[in-house]
Amino acid sequence: MIxxxxxxxxxxxxxxxxxxxxxxxxxxxxxxxxxxxxxxRERAGGFLDLCYxxxxxxxxxxxxxxxxxxxxxxxFSDILVVPDALGRRVEYREGEGPQLEPLRERGAxxxxxxxxxxxxxxxxxxxxxxxxxxxxxxxxxxxxxxSPWTVATYMVEGRGGTEFVESRRMAYFDPExxxxxIDVLTDATVEFLAGQVAAGAEVVQLFDTWAGVLSEEGxxxxxxxxxxxxxxxxxxxHPGLPVIGFPRGAGPRLIDYVRDTGVDAVGLDSGVPMGWAxxxxxxxxxxxxxxxxxxxxxxxxxxxxxVDRILDATRGRRLVFNLGHGILPPTPPEHVxxxxxxxxxxxx
Amino acid sequence: MIxxxxxxxxxxxxxxxxxxxxxxxxxxxxxxxxxxxxxxRERAGGFLDLCYxxxxxxxxxxxxxxxxxxxxxxxFSDILVVPDALGRRVEYREGEGPQLEPLRERGAxxxxxxxxxxxxxxxxxxxxxxxxxxxxxxxxxxxxxxSPWTVATYMVEGRGGTEFVESRRMAYFDPExxxxxIDVLTDATVEFLAGQVAAGAEVVQLFDTWAGVLSEEGxxxxxxxxxxxxxxxxxxxHPGLPVIGFPRGAGPRLIDYVRDTGVDAVGLDSGVPMGWAxxxxxxxxxxxxxxxxxxxxxxxxxxxxxVDRILDATRGRRLVFNLGHGILPPTPPEHVxxxxxxxxxxxx
Lengths: 348, 348
Known about the structure:
The structure is a homodimer.
Chain A: H1 9-14, H2 35-44, H3 47-51, H4 54-68, E1 72-74, H5 81-85, E2 90-92, E3 98-100, H6 106-110, H7 117-120, H8 122-134, E4 140-146, H9 148-157, H10 165-173, H11 175-198, E5 203-208, H12 216-237, E6 243-247, H13 254-261, E7 265-267, H14 274-280, E8 286-291, H15 293-298, H16 300-313, E9 319-323, H17 333-345
Parallel strand pairs in A: 1-4, 4-5, 5-6, 6-7, 7-8, 8-9
Antiparallel strand pairs in A: 2-3
């Protein structure tokens, strides 16, 4: 790991320093809980239009930085821009999850437009450029993508958050066909993330939202292996680039994930006790997480207790304070400010 | 732990013996994947009618014992008979999950008919009696219930498998109101399980299907604590009764769950590596699980490999072979038979 000095707290922690107070950002910090986001969102038209508008995507990325002074901005985008760029139909209907045309056949996998990824995603790179130019000197810019497994589940099922019967079936019983899809997604993800880094992202995070549903063998083959390949490819192109992996629901398999992927930091969902993670995951990774997003909606004494619990359990460890999952729309923005203040008032 | 000798392999393992081959049963072994189940189901009318018909519930419980020779029968019932018995409306519509009238107000919690539980659930106890009388001498009878937290999520949300925003909100921010509901459910669950034991169940399993969504503090308070209370109350009434706890999605928190609930065995979902569980969960509990139910649908070499992996990782340990979640409807029955044969051909 390269330990170059930086004024940016997030980069310092990812490079090896334990900081007190720790840097803080929150997943989905640019989102519907902010009135200024909702105003832009209404103007943008569809959700993908917002993702593909460099000016508007930059604007909503910067909103929570201006309002709260987070230590990092995360590029406003979506994990499903990759299937969209590969030529699959992706739709967002109001009040529903995303809908895609389900992908099952080998022919359709081979027909994915891998050559189009960097062309189609150019507006995202332009957004990253604008954000990087506008960010205060102490704020790091995080790029992101979905992991191949997670993106593949949306592509195969046609939607998210299901029992994943079709994607698991293909993964387990037609690994050659599924592997062809994962290979396309692995390459596309490297291109997507490398493009973000070239445009100014200083850190990237891989969201493996549905890692938890995989069997033990499946987890190694479809979550750990593609993640390791992406980390390797990115670090070859951008030596020293820090990578955060977030295998949601991985549970005890976090131990294998940390050991075998090469990530610099690991995102923890709220189901992982921080004390366990600090003791079991080794000193080679920084820990990121894991305040319960529902606790954040309610505020009060419980919120302060849960913040303190995370800080107490990670004393002396490299921590990036975050949630265990994205900010929920009914979250009062003042609760976010209160968490930041409490984290920053904590010292060693 | 009482270590009385029994001819029943499941009871021997729960009482302290490591057996090779291990006893085997499967969650939802009585279910839609069996043509003989579907035939009875059609005759029964509604799903709850089947649960409340002692003759038909006994018949479907016995079907997989006759067909496969499992080491244990699990009473055919449903975790939502408890809210039904408490006077809440519970509906099963074809092809959808269960629907309940959402329970939110303190008045409605206080109005729950705790006095009706054993009366309304008498047909379930009668089914257990019939099954116990009909089972072969070497087959153990397992009773079951949902855990208070899991049943409460259905009651508060009105349905299952959601983001659990309302139930988590009540649990975290109105713990007095939520605690009142959990207390009613804890008492009702003890009555329900004790009634099953009095009718002939020799083991009980608590299904905490949605334990994984709780925050760290929430998991202690709403999963571990009520489970510990139920285990204590049941063992006071029925000394030596073995209890299996199944906190699905608990991940590393299984360590706390095992240490603090007093369960005799712990059910593991497919996300828990058996090697990790064998090393980390101590010798005080038997391990139950955790074949991936999707792997079971597909069969073939992968199925054999995953069966062997579980057996290899638990050599010398007390194991109850099972799935990590219930049998899926598209599962070919011959795959179930193949797993049983493979487990039974494995020796020490």
